[in-house]
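From the shared-data thread, chain only:
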Amino acid sequence: MKIVNIYHILAMEFLDILFPKVCIECRSYGGDVCIECVKKIERVKTSTCFYCGKIEKNGLICVGCRDNNDTNITGIITSTIYEEGPTKEMIHYLKYCGYRDLSEMLGELIVERLKYSIIIKGAVVVPVPMHKNREIARGYNQAELLARYVSKELNSPGGLALKRTKDNPQQMKLKRGKRLENIKGSIECIDLELVKGKCVLLIDDVATTGATLSECARVLKDNGAKKVWGAVVARG
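Structure, as tokens:
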């Protein structure tokens, strides 16, 4: 270990003593999320079709829902229950309050779900893109932070293959029909070599209607991707 790293660690430990972190969920001391609140995170144990809830291996979109929802995504794997435990707060603090370190804890939840899944073999990890104006305002793209962690922990290749070309209204403010309309034509592939002929694993924090993941999948497939799976922390 380099001396500079030792000094950095000591400095961080000293700051933790002076300004101990408060749990975002219960407000007790003991880190961004305390041990007791971490225990309350409700993991998804059964893989189901994202749209109808029918049990499907690896969160595969069932045949009926694929036709009815006009989706391009092969399947969506969710890691936790959004409304249970501290998950909702963790995602909120990562996205809107600058708690970047939470990306590792949330990323680990995705990794837990993917570790023994056959779909990750040879898959390329790609984050859902954010428009540059929004990324500059926030300071980072939380999906990219999650994707970097997942790529590292699973030892899978990855990259910024997609770009958001239009700064459209936020998806969370719209209903499903409007979301599909809003997102269409606002994403492009900027790294064909990375995705051509590959299975792509799209990473995001939350999927609500699946519209953004579906549009990303459409663009990736149009540019040569073989299959596209989505992996998210939770379903909103």
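The beta strands are 75-80, 124-127, 162-164, 187-189, 199-207, 227-235.
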